[in-house]
Amino acid sequence: MEKLELRYRQVDSSLVKRLKQMPGGEAVGRCYQCGTCTASCVVNAMLDNFNPRRVIRMAVLGMREVLESVEPWYCAVCYMCTERCPRNVKPVSVLMAVKNLSAIEGKVPQAFRNINENIARIGRLFEIDDFTNFMREDMGLPPIEPSDAEEVAKLISGTEFERVVKGEAENE
Ligand code: SF4
Ligand code: SF4
User: How close is the Cα of 6 to the center of ligand 2, in Å?
Assistant: First the structure.
């Protein structure tokens, strides 16, 4: 796992305050770094560089790198951490709040912006190609029909989704 250096001058004390004001981030300050969330995490079991305890620590310390990091975005939202956290921090919700703050500041990592772009364009995370439908047929499953791009565009036009996809910060 990459070692992170904490530089006093780069610490942003307002970060944790903002997180606490966001839905899901209210209890971030209660974390006492026991690591139960990470030990329970299904993604951490497969991916060394995803560690919910560390994400929370970075946020509490005011390390703004957390807003640009891909780490919070690896969460599979399985809620295991939240079931087991002894301090009722609701780690999954804190990660959600970090991601929301990242979107508000226009800092969603490029890989996840690409995924959002697909949702805005085709209403799905990725294109369904002939091969996928061929595999489904082989398994006795019906083909997946193309999504209604016009309907998707209509739904998205009434939201802030496009701004997030383009990575435009709230106050730009
Ligand atoms: S389980 Fe809860 S208290 Fe323990 S490190 Fe995770 S968030 Fe913090
Ligand atoms: S909700 Fe996310 S952080 Fe929590 S255990 Fe599941 S994958 Fe890990």
Answer: 25
